[in-house]
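4.2 Preliminary Data

To establish feasibility before requesting continued support, the project team ran the inverse folding procedure on a target of 405 residues. The structure was first converted into the token representation described in Section 3, and no sequence information of any kind was made available to the design step. The complete token record follows.
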């Protein structure tokens, strides 16, 4: 085996430029695959994390008749005494935060301009609002007893040319099917760096949201944040009760999870295409080597070298090209992934149904993806040697010697 590797190394060294560029082609292909895998994984992870911290939480407790698509405000579809229920849930050891939220559809009106929004009534003191508080770019979060304050997203404010202290009229659907309206003062502007969320979400103190929607002491859902999201199923089972439905983050983000699975399956096809192109370069390199060394192969065959050993020699050359290419690919790909992890790719307000994308997509490369792509690239490189090795092994010694003259 050692002798074969030495021969393979010597043979590759005969045309170092060609060998280097063949390995480089494999390296560039692997680097591209690593970057693609990291970007897809980062995109899905970022979207899921944003959805959990801004929208779904790890668990949501709601009335079993509540329809989140219709944003129902009928009392029968809401949770009564939400603050008391949230306190009971928060007492569980696995629970970090439990807070009520009330959702309503509304319209922000400024002069002749109007924008449809989603109004969320929240407890301003809850830690679940940390992403919003951390994202404040101007002003403050409205206080719990504020009856005239509202918090707007920066993109919405920019589009309507609004600033902290300006007045807006908010029209909101109520529990009896009517529409109520009131003038509010903008207390603050926020940006979570998630345009699809910031652009359409308006926050009110829970008490004010309950009053203007006539929901009284009711809420749409209890948002639950756990210490460990892997405990979601166990905690959900403990929270089941008559008239209540507990939705886990997996169920709430089912579409996103399915999209991630589909994306990974689709990426496998792209991986094979890229590796197929790079394998073609390896095939061409080794086929050229066969034609250049026809006489040499004939001599080896004439002195008794078996066909399988001749094939093994070309597999060894392919293996060395694979090792060199993989080393280059890991180096180049590692640099690209590090850049994409730290700087990300700016995509702006790219709205995708069912996904909450931020302004930037940051790469996230897993050890599993790295090992999988590395092993697959090496296997494809070895498979690329099948035809050249077979071509060399089937050469008749006499014909090979004549062809080499």
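Position-by-position output of the design step:
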């Amino acid at each position: 085996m050692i002798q074969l590797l030495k021969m393979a190394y010597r043979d590759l060294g005969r045309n170092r430029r060609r060998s280097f560029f063949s390995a480089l082609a494999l390296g560039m292909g692997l680097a591209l695959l690593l970057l693609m895998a990291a970007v897809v994984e980062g995109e899905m992870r970022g979207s899921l994390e944003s959805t959990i911290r801004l929208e779904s939480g790890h668990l949501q407790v709601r009335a079993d008749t509540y329809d989140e698509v219709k944003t129902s405000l009928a009392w029968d579809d809401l949770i009564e005494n939400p603050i008391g229920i949230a306190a009971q849930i928060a007492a569980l050891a696995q629970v970090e935060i439990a807070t009520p939220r009330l959702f309503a559809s509304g319209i922000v009106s400024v002069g002749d301009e109007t924008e449809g929004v989603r109004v969320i009534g929240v407890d301003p003191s809850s830690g679940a609002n940390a992403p919003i508080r951390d994202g404040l770019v101007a002003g403050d979060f409205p206080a719990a007893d504020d009856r005239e304050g509202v918090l707007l997203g920066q993109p919405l404010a920019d589009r309507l040319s609004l600033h902290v202290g300006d007045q807006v009229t908010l029209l909101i659907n109520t529990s009896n099917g009517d529409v109520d309206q009131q003038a509010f003062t903008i207390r603050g502007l926020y940006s979570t760096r998630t345009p699809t969320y910031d652009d359409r979400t308006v926050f009110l103190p829970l008490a004010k949201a309950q009053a203007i929607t006539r929901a009284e002491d009711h809420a749409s859902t209890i948002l639950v944040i756990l210490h460990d999201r892997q405990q979601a199923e166990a905690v959900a089972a403990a929270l089941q009760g008559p008239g209540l439905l507990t939705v886990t983050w997996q169920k709430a983000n089912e579409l996103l999870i399915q999209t991630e699975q589909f994306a990974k399956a689709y990426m496998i096809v792209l991986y094979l295409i890229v590796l197929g192109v790079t394998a073609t370069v390896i095939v061409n390199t080794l086929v050229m080597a066969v034609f250049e060394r026809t006489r040499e192969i004939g001599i080896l065959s004439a002195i008794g070298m078996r066909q399988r050993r001749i094939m093994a020699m070309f597999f060894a050359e392919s293996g060395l090209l694979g090792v060199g290419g993989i080393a280059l690919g890991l180096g180049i790909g590692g640099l690209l992934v590090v850049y994409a992890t730290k700087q990300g790719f700016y995509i702006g307000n790219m709205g995708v149904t069912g996904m909450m994308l931020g302004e930037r997509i940051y790469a996230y490369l897993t050890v599993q993806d790295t090992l999988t792509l590395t092993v697959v690239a090496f296997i494809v490189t070895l498979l690329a040697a099948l035809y050249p090795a077979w071509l060399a092994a089937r050469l008749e010694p006499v014909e090979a010697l004549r062809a080499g003259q």
